[in-house]
Write a structure and sequence with these properties.
The protein has about 260 residues and is α/β, with parallel strands linked by helices. It is built from twelve helices and eight strands. It has an eight-stranded mixed beta sheet, with helices on both faces. Bound molecules: adenosine-5'-triphosphate and magnesium ion. Adenosine-5'-triphosphate (ATP) binds next to helix 1, strand 7 and helix 10.
Length: about 260
């Protein structure tokens, strides 16, 4: 099962990614959670202890590794470097594990111009493709925004892209844009997940106004989410309603 989670900023992608990762792990599955946000926070959402997180470095920040694998200096453009560096050992070498979930941080790449390719973006792109080819049982990609990391070739390997949306027109408009981009690269297995849903009316609004995406399900709005953040505990542990909602989503995903 390979899941990519996308949506407008702040809609709850990381919250959903962490909930699903823990739900799958507790169901006995082998889970690799990938944080593709340039400012990573999935580890915190999953409740990885700070001491463990301190040992985790985003792939894009590993200058020596990038140099070794691509043959070029990170941050340089226009030089020669391999577009197909070796990456197969990276997920095991650089992930950390807690409560049955392995976590990998991709890190951010400074954009130096339009359509630029630099050594670190070549490494990340190759790694993304590799992750989708790997036989991990469950892969969960917290995409931080759109689908720019997923190339045409890799679209075939994503079992489901979950586009998260709040019950607002703005959030749904972004969901629609992401869906169009995803379809452009050949990704057709797209679902909407409503988050921060306060009542039946908001659920009905999302159903009615979904931009052509079937609705997989909803996560309720809960003050417990911010509370969990302040306490430094996973939402999965702190808010039973959200844990249960994530389990329902997982069961629906299994039946797709
Ligand atoms: N079901 C919910 N009920 C209440 N608040 C929520 C819920 N889900 C998420 N939030 C809150 O919304 C904010 C954004 O959540 P989260 O970080 O998961 O979103 P995101 O889409 O990953 O954001 P970003 O685009 O910054 O990566 C957080 O403050 C979180 O506590
Ligand atoms: Mg996030």
């Amino acid at each position: 099962m390979k899941l990519a989670i996308a949506g407008k900023g702040g809609v709850g992608k990381t919250t959903l990614a962490a909930l699903l990762a823990q739900a799958y792990a507790d169901a006995g599955r082998d889970v690799l959670a990938v944080d593709a946000d340039p400012s990573p926070c999935l580890g915190q959402a999953l409740g990885f202890p700070a001491a463990l997180r301190a040992g985790l470095q985003p792939i894009a920040a590993m200058a020596d590794l990038i140099r070794e694998r691509t043959g070029a200096e990170p941050g340089t453009y226009g030089g020669f470097f391999t577009l197909n560096p070796r990456v197969d050992d990276l997920p095991d070498r650089f992930s950390i594990r807690h409560r049955g979930v392995r976590l990998l941080e991709m890190g951010g790449v400074e954009k130096g111009g339009s359509g630029c390719i630099c050594p670190e973006s070549a490494l990340l792109k190759t790694l993304f493709t590799h992750l989708l080819f790997r036989q991990d049982e469950v892969l969960i990609l917290d995409m931080y925004a759109g689908v720019e990391h997923l190339g045409r070739a890799t679209a075939d390997f994503v079992d489901a892209m979950l586009v998260v949306s709040e019950p607002t027109r703005r959030s749904l408009a972004t969901a629609g844009q992401i869906a169009r981009l995803a379809r452009d690269i050949g990704l057709t297995r797209l679902w909407l997940v409503g988050n921060k849903v306060r009542d039946e009316g908001e659920a009905a609004f999302l159903q009615a106004e979904s931009p052509g995406l079937p609705v997989l399900g909803f996560l309720p709005a809960s003050e417990g989410v911010q509370e969990a953040d302040r306490l430094g505990v996973p939402v999965y542990d702190h808010v039973p309603a959200l844990r249960q909602a994530a389990q329902v989503l997982m069961e629906r995903l299994e039946r797709l």
